[in-house]
């Protein structure tokens, strides 16, 4: 096939619809124009920080050097992370925290809440969902402070007082006795609300005829959920899981406020909190921005890897493709 | 079709023009806003002229609880004194002080200053710990003050050891604001209940000073207090619940060294650290006189528990007595029952120890009037002003003439603990001390929580320091 012929083919294929050819081009440019502000936002608030973080991670910039007195040290910060006795523990903590919170709360409890609130009259379901959103709109400091006083040792802690009424004698501070359970619950009870809303919307979008037909055919509530509702929640579940994984990987504020990574040796220290402690929080003053940036870069890489895994595992392209019936 | 296309083209061009106009407007607005911001900042710092008098606005930030408000208020009063001095000198400049005294965690306070300094918005004066002199001078955040201090009467009045705590590379970088003792506290009535005689109770501080009562004796007495039901389990002996200088007293009590005097490098003495960790393992894991979950306890719960006599021995700062009186209802009767002594040595025959952590005023490099800022601090470092801060907050005198102040002389606690300063160690002035501290505190947390044996924790700390600090630390 000669180049000339290829040009001819292209001309033939577009000429009969010359007007249609130009409109998509114009609308494409218009779409780009509309996207420009968002592209700028992504560039300024994601691409630039990632590039800056990457560059900072190659320096020894710290409080002691100031932003003007740093040296380029290549991959030295990454070598320090590899030689850091805390790094392995913190990484294990991160995977445990993200996985457990995701499965138990952000997807698991969210699904249970969505199903439960869909089975009751809408008025009550809506009220319950609204109430569940309260922790999300409560300031983090206030929310965690409430938890701290719930978990505190006698005579301050509400949990211990409640156990006392039940005849169970407990003197421990639950935040330190069961740190992971508390940290996961504190994050999970807030995080579950987003999945709950998305799953509820997806359940309401299921055609009522399908449910009625199945019911007429003798399906019980569990069968309806298992064979009709759950299969149609696969896409929302993927979205919630992917979104919340990235969100949990980067989140640390509730852990910072609740346990600050303790008690003891990095018990609840996760990677994002470790990066924060290294880069921005030091009791005696010399925060290490460069090393913290290297830790943050590792987190970005973990996030990218998690995203790719999700896309592959859940066959994202097929799920977001057009409806097969209409395409046929 | 043509009409449509033309109108479409017009629309398209219109969009581009509008977008370009919007971008230009945004750019202009940004530039104007930027200029405006810079202008207002200049305006705040530059002298404003009212008739012949020019007013210079200085900004200061200080940290502390309500009882430590004179850290800022003394600067306010000093502004009046300075203005009188300036008037006498015939100078037409007058100083006005802005800023605030904040009550927040130290790490947040320092973080706020560092970010402000990097953004070019640092105040003229900042109060912080003396250990910040090393990283902040290296970063260029603060300026040396020798030219403003040396030769002034106050230079000779302040105790020489305090000047050492702010001198680095032969330069004075800060002016001491206060100093404290960190005693071992106990309740005399509890020891009485345990069967101690009045004489034994009265002479306890002296026995600690002579090395006749050691850290091990503290633990065994704490265990007895628990066994007799005088204090609840896990509350025989408490340290502070959060990171801080107190923990280095134990390291010093076991013979540890923090800095090599000849090279200025940080030092980790493995044997001293091991003994310290073993002591805490015995307290929290073996004898159970300290809660394994103590580190991390909320400060308010800690203050309430110790001031309500629910803990046998506890380590705190002399300034915390003012907090207990002011916020937690410690009565005069309670004060008489409160005993305090040096922290006992780790081994018999050695004197007890304490640690001072002088807080200091620094002048930032971004101050447009460092001379006035330094003069303002020197005016605030007057015996009568500093004495009222010392009495209100239970800090110790920083200068000789302050000791003659009637209010200061009349304060029993301050007089009782004054001797402790002679046995005080200081934190090292080293840019990497913050990172050294993080590793050592993590190891201590692991030991107290029972996650690591003392030797394991020491090994991890050593590896961490070697990885992070490299040739900046000497491991012995």
What labels would you give this structure?
heterodimer, A: 328 residues, mainly alpha, flat, disordered N terminus, B: 476 residues, alpha/beta, six-stranded mixed β-sheet
Can you put this structure into words, describing what you see?
With 328 residues, chain A is an all-alpha fold. Chain A is built from 18 helices and no strands. The two termini of chain A are 32 Å apart. Mean pLDDT of chain A is 83; it is low at 1-20. With 476 residues, chain B is an alpha/beta fold. In chain B, strand 5 (167-168) and strand 6 form a beta hairpin. The chains are: A mainly alpha (328), B alpha/beta (476). Chains A and B meet through helix 2 and helix 9 of A and helix 1, helix 3, helix 4, helix 21 and helix 22 of B.
Q: What general form of chain B does the structure show?
A: globular
Largest interface, and how many residues on either side?
A-B, 49 and 61 residues
Biggest sheet architecture of chain B: 6 strands, mixed
- What is the straight-line distance between the termini of chain A? 32 Å
Which helices and strands appear, and what pairs or packs with what?
The complex is a heterodimer of chains A (328) and B (476).
Chain A: H1 3-14, H2 18-56, H3 76-82, H4 87-119, H5 122-132, H6 134-137, H7 140-151, H8 158-165, H9 174-177, H10 179-204, H11 208-216, H12 221-229, H13 234-250, H14 253-258, H15 271-280, H16 289-313, H17 316-319, H18 324-327
Chain B: H1 2-45, E1 48-50, E2 53-63, H2 70-88, E3 93-102, H3 106-118, E4 125-129, H4 133-138, H5 146-149, H6 153-157, H7 160-164, E5 167-168, E6 171-172, E7 175-178, E8 184-187, H8 188-193, H9 198-202, H10 204-209, H11 215-227, E9 237-238, H12 247-253, E10 266-268, H13 270-286, H14 299-307, E11 313-315, H15 318-327, H16 332-337, E12 338-341, E13 354-356, E14 359-363, H17 370-380, H18 383-393, H19 406-409, H20 412-417, E15 424-426, H21 433-449, H22 454-468, E16 473-475
Helix pairs in contact in B: 2-17, 12-13, 13-21, 13-22, 21-22
């Amino acid at each position: 096939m000669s180049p000339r012929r290829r040009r001819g083919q292209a001309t033939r294929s577009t000429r009969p619809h010359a007007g249609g050819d130009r409109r998509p081009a114009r609308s494409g440019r218009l779409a780009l124009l509309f996207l420009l502000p968002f592209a700028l936002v992504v560039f300024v608030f994601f691409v630039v920080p990632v590039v800056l973080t990457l560059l900072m991670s190659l320096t020894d910039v710290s409080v002691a050097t100031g932003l003007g007195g740093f040296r380029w040290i290549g991959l030295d910060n990454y070598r320090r992370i590899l030689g850091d006795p805390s790094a392995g523990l913190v990484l294990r903590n991160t995977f445990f925290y993200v996985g457990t919170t995701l499965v138990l709360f952000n997807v698991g409890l969210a699904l249970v809440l969505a199903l439960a609130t869909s089975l009751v009259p809408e008025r009550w379901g809506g009220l319950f969902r609204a109430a569940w959103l309260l922790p999300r709109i409560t300031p983090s400091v206030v929310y965690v402070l409430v938890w701290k006083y719930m978990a505190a040792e006698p005579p301050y802690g509400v949990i211990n007082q409640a156990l006392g009424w039940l005849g169970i004698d407990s003197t421990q501070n639950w935040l330190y006795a069961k740190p992971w359970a508390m940290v996961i619950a504190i994050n999970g009870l807030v995080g579950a609300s987003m999945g709950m809303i998305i799953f509820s919307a997806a359940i309401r979008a299921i055609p009522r005829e399908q449910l009625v037909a199945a019911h007429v055919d003798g399906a019980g509530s569990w069968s309806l959920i298992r064979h009709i509702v759950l299969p149609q929640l696969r896409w929302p579940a993927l979205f919630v899981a992917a979104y919340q994984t990235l969100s949990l990987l980067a989140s640390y504020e509730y852990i910072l406020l609740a346990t600050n990574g303790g008690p003891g040796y990095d018990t609840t220290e996760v990677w994002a909190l470790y990066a924060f402690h290294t880069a921005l929080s030091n009791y005696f003053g010399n925060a290490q921005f460069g090393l913290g940036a290297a830790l943050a870069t590792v987190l970005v890489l973990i996030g990218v890897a998690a995203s790719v895994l999700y896309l592959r595992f859940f066959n994202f392209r097929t799920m977001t493709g057009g409806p097969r019936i209409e395409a046929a | 079709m043509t009409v449509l296309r033309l109108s479409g083209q017009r629309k398209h061009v219109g969009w581009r023009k509008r977008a370009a106009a919007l971008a230009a407007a945004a750019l202009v607005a940004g530039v104007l806003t930027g200029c405006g911001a810079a202008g207002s900042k200049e305006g705040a710092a530059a002298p404003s002229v009212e008739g012949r008098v020019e007013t210079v606005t200085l900004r200061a930030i200080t940290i502390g609880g309500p009882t430590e408000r004179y850290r800022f208020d003394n600067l306010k009063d000093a502004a009046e004194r300075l203005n009188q001095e300036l008037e006498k000198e015939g100078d037409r400049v007058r100083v006005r002080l802005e800023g605030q005294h904040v009550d927040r965690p130290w790490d947040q306070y320092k973080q706020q200053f560092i970010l402000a300094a990097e953004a070019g918005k640092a105040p003229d004066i900042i109060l912080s710990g003396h250990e910040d002199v090393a990283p902040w001078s290296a970063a260029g955040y603060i300026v040396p003050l020798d030219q403003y201090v040396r030769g002034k009467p106050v230079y000779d009045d302040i105790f020489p050891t305090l000047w050492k705590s702010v001198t680095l590379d032969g330069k004075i970088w800060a002016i001491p604001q206060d100093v404290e003792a960190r005693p071992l506290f106990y309740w005399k009535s509890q020891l009485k209940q345990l069967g101690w005689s009045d004489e034994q109770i009265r002479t306890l501080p002296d026995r600690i000073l002579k090395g006749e009562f050691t850290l091990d004796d503290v633990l065994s007495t704490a265990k007895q207090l628990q066994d007799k039901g005088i204090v609840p389990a896990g509350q025989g002996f408490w340290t502070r619940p959060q990171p801080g200088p107190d923990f280095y007293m134990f390291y010093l009590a076991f013979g540890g060294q923090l800095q090599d005097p000849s090279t200025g490098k940080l030092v980790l003495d493995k044997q001293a650290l091991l003994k310290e960790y073993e002591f805490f393992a015995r307290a929290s894991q073996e004898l159970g006189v300290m809660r394994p979950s103590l580190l991390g306890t909320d400060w308010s719960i800690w203050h309430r528990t110790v001031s309500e006599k629910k803990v046998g021995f506890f380590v705190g700062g002399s300034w915390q007595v003012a907090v207990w009186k002011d916020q937690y209802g410690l009565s005069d009767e309670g004060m008489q029952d409160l005993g305090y002594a040096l922290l006992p040595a780790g081994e018999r025959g050695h004197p007890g120890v304490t640690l001072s952590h002088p807080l200091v005023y620094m002048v930032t490099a971004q101050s447009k009037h460092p001379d006035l800022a330094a003069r303002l601090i020197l005016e605030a470092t007057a015996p009568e002003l500093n004495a009222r801060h010392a009495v209100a907050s239970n800090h110790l005198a920083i200068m000789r003439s302050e000791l003659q102040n009637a209010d200061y002389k009349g304060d029993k606690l301050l007089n009782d603990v004054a001797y402790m300063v002679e046995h005080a160690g200081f934190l090292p002035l080293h840019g990497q001390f913050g990172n050294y501290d993080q590793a050592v505190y993590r190891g201590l947390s692991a030991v107290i929580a029972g996650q690591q044996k003392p030797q394991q924790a020491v090994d991890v700390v050593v590896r961490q320091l070697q990885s992070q600090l490299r040739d900046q630390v000497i491991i012995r």
